[in-house]
Amino acid sequence: MLQTMRGAIFDLDGVIVDTAKYHYLAWAKLADELGFAFTEEHNERLKGVSRMRSLDILLEVGGQDFSEEDKLVMADKKNKLYVEYISTLNESELLPGVKDYLIGLRARGVGIALGSASKNAMFILDKLNIAELFDSIVDGNKVSRAKPDPEVFLIACAELALQPVDCVVFEDAEAGVQAAKAAGMQVVGIGRPEILKDADLVVAGLHVLEGLDRLN
């Protein structure tokens, strides 16, 4: 699978960098201002989910309801808090093995794409100093349907000028694994096997794959 792939499509949060903690801090602050607590356990429900759906889940937790107009204002406020938190990101926050693995793929001629729900993906990749390693960046500004819908991965595949069968997706969320499978792609799960049980291979991180490539 990994030795024959022609395209590699990566999720962002939890695969390239761990910005989940900053998302959580921003959502928790918003919830606090609305008068209820939003815990890390609640936050697990937001993994791999779009911003507006995440807000709906947060409001469900707080038992609150607002107009669509108010929710757009809240989502924008949360994003501004998040961008403020991640403004200090730098290359040191790349997850282990990420840059070496991407460089290795480029040396093999594998097309590299990002497939993320984040609307801040380009900002984050620039902060991490790895944007130039991607041939295609498909983020929340390019898609209208959130994972587990396969749209984000199908667009990335098309931008790499490849077929789904030629691509492998690297994902840390169950919804992302489902999206990749729905797109007709194989999946490497990054994280815990019990959560990513439908992935074709599960590893702790890209550093594991980078190490395996050196052995092959």
UniProtKB/TrEMBL annotation:
Sample GO molecular function, one term: beta-phosphoglucomutase activity
Keyword annotations: Isomerase, Magnesium, Metal-binding
GO terms classed as biological process: carbohydrate metabolic process
Chain positions recorded as Mg(2+) binding sites: D11, D13, E171, D172
Enzyme Commission number, as recorded: 5.4.2.6
Highest taxon of the lineage: Bacteria
Cited CDD domains: HAD_BPGM
Classification via Pfam families: HAD_2
Cofactor(s) needed for function: Mg(2+)
Residues where substrate binds: 11-13, 27, 46-51, 54, 78, 116-120, 147
Positions of the record's site feature: Important for catalytic activity and assists the phosphoryl transfer reaction to Asp8 by balancing charge and orienting the reacting groups: S116, K147
Cofactor binding: number and manner: Binds 2 magnesium ions per subunit.
PANTHER family (UniProt xref): 2-DEOXYGLUCOSE-6-PHOSPHATE PHOSPHATASE 2, PSEUDOURIDINE-5'-PHOSPHATASE
Protein's UniProt name: Beta-phosphoglucomutase
Organism of derivation: Paenibacillus monticola
